[in-house]
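Narrative summary of target 7.
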Amino acid sequence: MLRKGFTLLEVLIVVIIIGILSSIALPQYFSTLEKARSGEAVTNVGAVRMALDRYWYQNGSATADLDLLDIGNPNDITNKLYSYSVVDDGTDAGTRMYTVTATRTIGTTDYWVKWTQTDNNTGVLTKSTTLGGSGE
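Modeled conformation, tokenized:
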């Protein structure tokens, strides 16, 4: 007698293998997805940084008020993924020193991208370890 199809045992083995592969692949997929989403933060932090530099050149001081920048406040974007903030670290008429931070919290996990301007020529972009960066 010729039988066509699969036995219950064969189907169960395939389902178990798919389950194991999914449990390995899904966390990596979500991690990669968050890293891709951090592109928004990097772009907007760069735009805020450039706008802060223009503001400093025009006014000789820094501002922590994102509404005063010529690009508009990135926190006013309807479907934004990150929240943005600026901290003046001691800017004066001769030196720019500030920190621009983009933060996103999902559940108990924090994601952030930060630009720290330490003087007129030096700054560093850092990312949280959850985005593949070194953190702080």
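The chain has a mean pLDDT of 91.
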